[in-house]
UniProtKB/TrEMBL annotation:
Record protein name field: Major histocompatibility complex class I-related gene protein-like
Keywords: Glycoprotein, Membrane, Transmembrane, Transmembrane helix
Gene: LOC117552316
InterPro entries, alphabetized: Ig-like_dom, Ig-like_dom_sf, Ig-like_fold, Ig_C1-set, MHC_class-I_related, MHC_I-like_Ag-recog, MHC_I-like_Ag-recog_sf, MHC_I/II-like_Ag-recog
Transmembrane segments: 192-217
Lineage: Eukaryota, Metazoa, Chordata, Craniata, Vertebrata
Residue ranges, annotated region (Disordered): 224-244
Length: 244
């Protein structure tokens, strides 16, 4: 069985529901607007007819799901308003795996999940060459979503005409990001960094070789200036000879 109620805090509309299921399919459905039961399966017709005759039970169900349930729902919403009614602005970025891949406009960290995102060209919303992803939950309770744009048929010099627009319920200002190659995050490395890395490696190797050469030079000079044991003995013998 599944039962409960929905409350639209903007319009005040309340909807109650009560469903019975069997073997993975609907068996009986309570229609509170017509105050009657619906039998999707022939096997439920007899039960439907019996329940429709019980006016007291119908009145009780209508009270529970259109009055009491919404009151509890409003109470809990008010208690958790600081968390449930919060608004968190997302971080929006452009991603592309390779030059031939679509450009993905990715928004993450937003709350609530009542949000839409789309691509525009010259201010007009695009429908062709666009793939909308689902809104997915993050581990921290916020949400994320992506919208891909296939740019293969658009010349790069026209990319500045495209915009990714993110709209969040309760926020007046849209989050807009221009399709700019300079801000697209990609898996490709920056070709300008390669010469810098090679140059730094060569400089480090040169310094290392220079240091080793200096140490070898100092050691050789020290060996030349230090008298050998034979020379020291000869000098001592000469100094000890009596004067003639």
């Amino acid at each position: 069985m599944m039962s409960g109620c929905d409350w639209d805090d903007e319009t005040g509309e309340v909807k109650g529901y009560k469903h019975y299921g069997f073997d993975g399919e609907d068996f009986l459905i309570l229609d509170l607007e017509t105050e009657s039961w619906i039998a999707p399966k022939p096997e439920a017709v007899f039960t439907k007819q019996r329940l429709n005759k019980d006016k007291a039970l119908m009145a009780f169900n209508k009270y529970i799901y259109t009055q009491e349930c919404p009151e509890y729902l409003k109470k809990y919403v008010n208690l958790g308003r600081s968390s449930l009614m919060r608004t968190e602005i997302p971080s929006v970025s452009l991603l592309q795996k390779s030059p031939s891949s679509p450009v993905s406009c990715h928004a993450t960290g937003f709350y609530p999940d009542r949000a839409i995102m789309f691509w525009t060209r010259d201010g007009e919303e695009l429908h062709d060459n666009v793939d909308h992803g689902e809104i997915l939950p993050n581990h921290d309770g916020s949400f994320q979503m992506s919208v891909d744009l296939d740019v293969s048929s658009f010349p790069a010099e026209h990319w500045d005409k495209f915009r990714c627009v993110f709209q969040l319920s309760g926020v007046k200002e849209d989050h807009i990001i221009v399709l700019d190659p300079a801000v697209i995050r990609t898996n490709r490395g920056n070709p300008l960094l390669l010469p810098l890395i090679i140059g730094a490696a060569v400089a480090a190797l040169a310094l290392l070789l220079a240091g080793i050469g200096f140490l070898v030079y100092r050691k050789r000079n020290a060996n030349k200036n230090t008298p050998s044991p034979a020379s020291s003995a000869e000098l001592t013998e000469r100094l000890n000879q009596p004067p003639q």
